[in-house]
Amino acid sequence: MSPPSRPRPHASKPLAGLRIVICRPREQAKPLADALAAAGAAVVSAPVIAITDPADGGAALRDAVARLGAGDWLVVTSPNGAARVAAAGPLPDGVNVAAIGPGTADRAIAAGLTVRMVPDRSIAEGLVEAFPTPDPDSGRLVVLARAAVARSVLPDELRAAGWEVLDVAAYRNVAAPLSGQQRQAVAASDGVVFTSSSTVKRLVAEVGAGAVPPLVASIGPATSATAVEHGLEVTVEATEHTIDGVVAALVGHARSWPGSDSAG
Q: Per residue, what are the HEC states of 33-94?
C-alpha cells in the first residue's frame, strides 16, 4: 500500500499517527496492543472471536490426557490450548510437552507444564520439522490439544511419521459480533494485524473485504493465505511467527516508507 499521509515524527515511534486494528479476543489482546502502542500506533480494538469450551465440555481432552504415558507427547499450539490442558488435570510422569511458539510455551510454563520442545519456526510445519521420530522402546502417542477447527497439517504429518495421534478439541473460537461503532472504527483505520486465520475470516464477515484497512500485517503464511482467499492483499508477513515478530515486521515496513527518519 502507499504510505498513509499521517506523519511519523521520529524513528522511536515509527507507527505514530497510524490507527491499527487488532482482532484478538479481548482477554488476550494486551501484549499485541502494548507492543503496537509502544511503537506509536493508536490501537483500535475489534475482537471478532471469543474463546469458549469445546462442544463436549472438555471430555475428549481429559480422556486423551489420561491416556498419555512416559515417553508420549502432548502438543499445544496456542496459549488457549496450554491453559485448557493445565485445567484438564496433572500430566502423568514422563510425558513430553511441545509448544508451537514462545508465547504458547510461556503460557504452558505459567500453568505448571514443563516444555521440552519449541520449534525455531512457530508454525505447524516448523513443529513437524523439529519433532522426533517415534522410539519403538518409548511412547508412540501424541495428543494434540488445539482449536476445534484447525489445519490438518500437524496430525497428518505426525501420523505419516509413525506416531499415533489423538487430535482433540481443547477449545472453540466462536464469533464475537462487532458494534456499529466498532465497524466504523475499523473502516476508518489505516492498518490491521491478523494473528490467525480465524481473525481474518471473522473480520471480513463483519465488515466486508472492502472495509478492511489497507495495511495488512500477517503473523505467518497460513494466515496470509486465508487473507488472500478472502480478497485481501497482505502488505507484510512476519518472519518470526509471534506477536513480537508481526509487530517488528510492521515497524520495519513503516521505517521503509519515504519520509521516515530511518529511510535513505
A: HHHHHHCCCEEEECCCEEEECCCCCCHHHHHHHHHCCCCCEEEECCHHHHHHHHHCCCCCCC
CA distances (Å), 77 to each of 21, 158, 226, in order?
24, 14, 18
CA-CA distance, 39 to 58, in Å (whole number)?
A: 39
Q: Are the C-beta atoms of 92 and 143 separated by less than 8 Å?
A: no
Q: How far is CA 188 from CA 2, 35, 98, 192, 200, in A?
A: 16, 21, 40, 11, 18
Where does 19-48+176-255 sit in CATH, by number? 3.40.50.10090
Residues comprising the chain, all counted: 264
What average pLDDT does this structure show over 17-27?
92
Which cell numbers hold the place of 72? 508420549
Enumerate the domain spans of the chain: 19-48+176-255, 52-173
- The helix-helix angle for 221-229 and 197-207 (nearest 10°) equals 20
* Predicted TM-score of the model (pTM): 0.76
- The answer to whether the beta carbons of residues 96 and 73 sit under 8 Å apart is yes
Calculate mean pLDDT across residues 112-118.
Answer: 92
Q: H or E segment at 202? A: helix 197-207
52-173 maps to which CATH number?
3.40.50.10090
25: left (phi over 0), alpha (psi -120 to 50) or beta: beta
Closest listed residue to residue 251, CA positions, set 8, 15, 66: 15
Phi, psi of 37 (to 5 degrees): -65, -35
